[in-house]
């Protein structure tokens, strides 16, 4: 038995901020942002919380599958920007959705959060512990960006997505394999300095602007290029797949150059790499479900396709998932 994706959707806040929006505020250029990252614009919601972004995606998943919220038995939300430290965004979302029979939890895996959550959900399905799992990944990065720090604020965006996981009797489709990794030594290069139990909020932490993303870009870049390429190649190799067998690489969208290096290592041509960084920036746990949802919406993925999902982010956390796609949009229409 395998866990298959039976519905997928995403949501981003409506307001779009292009690179020129930043050039009026900080010392940067559209050219620098595009050439160094590939980003042209991103969506921000300066009001509301993460669950306001995820709720429409979750509702669309239920609509697609034709089920009611009370049929969901577990909700996992992967994020580093929950509505509150507690209760979990899973609990808040459960209430907003009316999923009164669901339990659930948040999972903190930064940019790899969705992959961690997808594998966790799939294992619960395979163990028979759940029949309808709602797995979401998303972040409201605008809540933790220092808009005076040009090295970070131009990189991120708000958004997220949701999948419904269900058991399938057939072993042909679903989450086939995964490689998940973590190295806490990466903490020094990418973290949020204050707000947790180590450094609770004080006037000093606020004045020092410690509640924002801190990133040493080049150090993260070097590890990301190697980490993402290694696991993406390894998952192909150990499942005896060649580049011809892979329909799509669905990479975390942090930097076009990291994505290109991963595709090159796998021997994949550019037309097999899902990229939407130019429109959304880096939505942290949101990038992979948003990519997958856009592929599905635009009918570019069909049942039986082998998809390699891969990510790298804070922790460090990184990994790859081999997913054999299970739903055909044409048949559903
Ligand atoms: O998703 C979580 C994981 N995160 C990642 O995977 C991100 C990995 N890192 C990166 O994507 C890249 O390192 C960045 C896009 C963050 C930065 O690109 P870079 O090519 O590594 O640039 P850099 O940090 O080496 O900075 C080069 C120059 C510096 O100026 P000097 O010291 O050479 O004079 C920066 O101060 O670019 C400057 N700079 C900017 N200039 C204009 C940094 N940010 C900006 C900016 N506009 N927004």
Task: Describe the 3D structure.
Helix content is 34%, strand content 25%. Helix 4 links the parallel strand 4 and strand 5. The protein has twelve helices and 13 strands. It has two domains: 3-171, Thiolase/Chalcone synthase (Peroxisomal Thiolase, Chain A, domain 1, 3-Layer(aba) Sandwich), CATH 3.40.47.10; 175-332, Peroxisomal Thiolase, Chain A, domain 1, CATH 3.40.47. Helix 3 (50-65) crosses helix 4. The strands form four sheets. The protein has a five-stranded mixed beta sheet, with helices on both faces. The structure holds oxa(dethia)-CoA. The site of oxa(dethia)-CoA (UT7) has 21 residues, from helix 2, helix 6, helix 8 and strand 12.
Question: Which labels suit this protein?
Answer:
333 residues; alpha/beta; Peroxisomal Thiolase, Chain A, domain 1; 2 domains; 4-stranded mixed β-sheet; 13 strands; 34% helix
Give the helices and strands, then pairings.
Layout: E1 2-11, E2 16-18, H1 19-23, H2 30-37, E3 41-43, H3 50-65, E4 74-78, H4 89-97, E5 103-107, H5 113-126, E6 133-140, H6 150-153, E7 158-168, E8 174-182, E9 190-192, H7 203-207, E10 213-215, H8 217-238, E11 246-251, H9 256-266, H10 277-280, H11 287-297, E12 306-313, E13 317-324, H12 329-332
Parallel strand pairs: 4-5, 4-6, 11-12
Antiparallel strand pairs: 1-7, 2-3, 6-7, 8-13, 9-10, 12-13
Helix pairs in contact: 3-4, 8-9
The structure holds oxa(dethia)-CoA.
Oxa(dethia)-CoA (UT7) is lined by residues 28, 32-33, 36-37, 111, 150-151, 154-155, 217-218, 220-221, 224, 254-255, 258, 282, 312-313.
């Amino acid at each position: 038995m395998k866990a298959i994706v039976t519905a997928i959707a995403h949501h981003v806040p409506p307001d779009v901020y292009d690179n020129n929006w930043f050039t009026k505020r900080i010392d940067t250029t559209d050219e620098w942002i595009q050439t160094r990252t590939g980003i042209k614009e991103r969506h921000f919601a300066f009001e509301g919380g993460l669950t306001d972004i995820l709720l429409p995606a979750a509702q669309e998943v239920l609509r697609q599958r034709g089920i009611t919220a009370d049929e969901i038995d577990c909700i996992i939300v992967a994020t580093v920007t929950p509505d509150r430290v507690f209760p979990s965004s899973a609990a808040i979302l459960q209430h907003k959705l009316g999923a009164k029979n669901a339990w659930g939890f948040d999972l903190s895996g930064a940019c790899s959060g969705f992959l961690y959550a997808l594998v966790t959900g799939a294992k619960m399905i395979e163990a028979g512990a759940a029949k309808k799992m709602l797995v979401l990944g998303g972040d409201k990065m605008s809540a933790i960006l220092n808009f005076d720090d040009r090295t970070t604020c131009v990189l991120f965006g708000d958004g997220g997505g949701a999948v419904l996981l269900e058991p399938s009797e057939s072993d042909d489709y679903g989450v086939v394999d995964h490689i998940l990794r973590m190295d806490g030594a990466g903490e020094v290069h990418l973290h949020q300095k204050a707000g947790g139990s180590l450094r609770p909020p004080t006037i000093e932490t606020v004045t020092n602007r410690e509640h924002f993303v801190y990133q040493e870009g080049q150090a993260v870049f070097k590890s990301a290029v190697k980490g993402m390429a290694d696991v993406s190649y390894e998952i192909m190799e150990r499942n005896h797949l060649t580049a011809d067998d892979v329909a799509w690489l669905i990479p975390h969208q942090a930097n076009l150059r990291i994505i290109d290096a991963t595709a090159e290592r796998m021997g994949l041509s550019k037309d097999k790499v899902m990229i939407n960084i130019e429109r959304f920036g880096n939505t942290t746990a949101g990038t992979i479900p948003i990519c997958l949802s856009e592929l599905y919406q635009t009918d570019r993925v069909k049942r039986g396709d082998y998809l390699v999902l891969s990510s790298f982010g804070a922790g460090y956390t990184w990994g790859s998932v081999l997913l054999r796609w299970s739903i055909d949009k044409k048949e559903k229409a």
